[in-house]
Structure prediction request, 267 residues.
Amino acid sequence: MTGIPTAHRAVNTMIGVGTNPGMQCLDAGTSSASTTLMGMCGRFAAEFDYPEIAQMLHAQPSAGLPKRSWNISPTQTIAIVGQDAHGVNHLAPAYWSLIPPAAESKKLPYPTFNARIESALDKPTFAQAAKHNRAIIPVSGYYEWTPDCEPYYFHANDNHPLLLLGLYSWWKPREQAHATWLLTATILTRDSVGIAAQVHNRMPVLTDLQHAQEWLNRDIPGDDILPVASSRGAALSRTLLACHRVAPLHGDGPELTEPYDDMMLRF
Prediction:
């Protein structure tokens, strides 16, 4: 990919796996907070047709699915596909930041909109969900930031929806006697490969339709499928992903995903 400056590639070569340069980038877009720290896969676009997604993933659509958006941020409502205890797939709205069932509050002291696939089974926050409650988050594309805060938009080279691997969990506040259960979710990430590694050191884990049902199958233990899914996601990212630089994210609309032209600054 020729559109990513060499300097950015050099910086990403030097940074360690544990660092997260995107967390230094502030966004003034339409998030639930006035300023939101950007992390790996901390923004994405979803402009697809829900009946098409439901058919693709053999899922029953639920009420309350979110409207189209090109600037979706953590804690907003997103569409996910997950399987229930009877083996039925559902396309349902979820709160984007996983809340474990034992949490006393909806506001956790640490971000949970992403989870590392390498350690999800070992972390108390994600372990229960990683064993059986696996999800797929369909997106049109997602944004990542270079260490110097330049945003890039990643999408499928055939412009079909990307299927991101995730986890889901149900949560209900204990202090409210008549509270309803809230479906929450996180997006799984892994070390970047291919063009994704030229922008950021982490990337969301992708899947394809061939392996989607296996991922959703609750009868398959997480120990068996997470490592395999991570490897498959890396291979898929090398062949499927395309990206281009975009303007800083402000507001919402399809123009956010359009290629950024440096010449625009001269007019």
